[in-house]
């Protein structure tokens, strides 16, 4: 659907990329090389890493395959993709923008795996920024506001939920069953492929435009709704027990009920 929107545009080229396969990454590098050689005066202004998979589910629930998928896409694949493009970035003095997450700042329950990948990506971005600065390449950490309900980052949540439940042993099913079902019922609305839409929060686009065009750019661009600003402030200044309570209030998710667990 996205391709049909832009296929007749002289300024748009689409390449289908699987960031978890080296061959696909190398093919994209060749594709970009060819474009730069074919069009005189064309510059690689910015390279943006925005691949992401987000799976809701407690750490004990998620299968090794689900965990590895998030690591391979969010962290390892992004590192490999970036390394492959670094020679071009040095040549063109491009800027590299890695899209991380508010979860890289504050890990959240049911997103511990996702948060660890984004925190790792934030650390990689900071180290890379220091490395590349001496070569005239800016590296930016872009932290967007929350628009996961309108994106496809959790499009396969129901599929992953079914895999998690299938992997439960009898003790886990009895203990977690009610809580697991209530939580995933609350998550039903985020699953499924969504059509491309204009982001409801215009500030995300405005902040991203600044990350692309500011000269010189900042090392980090943080975009957050007022709800995020308030909670992040409270997370920093409150005692840990209160901060933990606020975290669950921030998530707005069902909680475990021990009276419904079968021991």
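Sequence proposed for the structure above (263 residues):
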């Amino acid at each position: 659907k996205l391709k049909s929107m832009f296929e007749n545009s002289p300024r748009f080229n689409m390449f289908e990329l699987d960031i978890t396969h080296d061959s696909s990454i190398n093919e994209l590098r060749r594709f970009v090389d060819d474009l730069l050689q074919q069009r005189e005066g064309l510059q690689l202004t910015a390279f943006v890493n925005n691949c992401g998979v987000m799976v809701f589910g407690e750490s004990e629930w998620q299968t090794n395959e689900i965990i590895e998928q998030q690591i391979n896409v969010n962290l390892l694949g992004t590192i490999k993709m970036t390394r492959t493009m670094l020679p071009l970035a040095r040549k063109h003095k491009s800027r590299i923008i890695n899209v991380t997450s508010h979860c890289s700042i504050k890990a959240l329950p049911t997103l511990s795996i996702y948060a660890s990948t984004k925190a790792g990506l934030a650390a990689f971005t900071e180290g890379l920024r220091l490395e590349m600065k001496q070569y005239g390449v800016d590296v930016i950490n872009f932290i967007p506001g929350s628009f996961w309900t309108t994106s496809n980052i959790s499009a396969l949540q129901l599929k992953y939920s079914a895999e998690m439940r299938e992997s439960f042993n009898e003790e886990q099913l009895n203990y977690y069953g009610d809580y697991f079902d209530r939580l995933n019922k609350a998550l039903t609305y985020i699953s499924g492929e969504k059509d491309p839409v204009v982001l409801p929060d215009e500030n995300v686009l405005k902040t991203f435009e600044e990350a692309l065009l500011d000269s010189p750019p900042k090392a980090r661009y943080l975009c957050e709704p007022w709800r995020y600003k308030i909670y992040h402030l409270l997370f920093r200044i409150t005692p840990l027990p209160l901060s933990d309570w606020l975290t669950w209030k921030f998530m707005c998710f069902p909680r475990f009920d021990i009276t419904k667990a079968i021991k």
